[in-house]
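Protocol step 4 of 6: structure prediction from sequence.
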Amino acid sequence: MEEITEKIRCWAKKHGLNNADAGKQMLKLMEEIGELAEGLAKSNSDEIKDAIGDSFVVLTILAMQLGLSIEDCVSYAYDQIKNRTGKTVNGVFIKSEDLK
């Protein structure tokens, strides 16, 4: 994973995306998430796989643009959830504090 993430960073730098507008990258992320939703709606596994991969690429670049690393962002998110309690309802995890 480290190797492919570094390749993404190099590709982004080569194309000047590391210094581009983060707002535009956010729009690109929403486009990819839309494609993921379409793939899920159509049960198209190739489209789903492509959209998840594209989303990771876009998030990696967005993190760069904001002076962050995708690894630090994921680590931070995991630290937030690792001890979280709750339960899964209809396939969605609900935090204990949100359960009523």
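Step 5 (inspection) to follow. The chain has one domain: 2-98.
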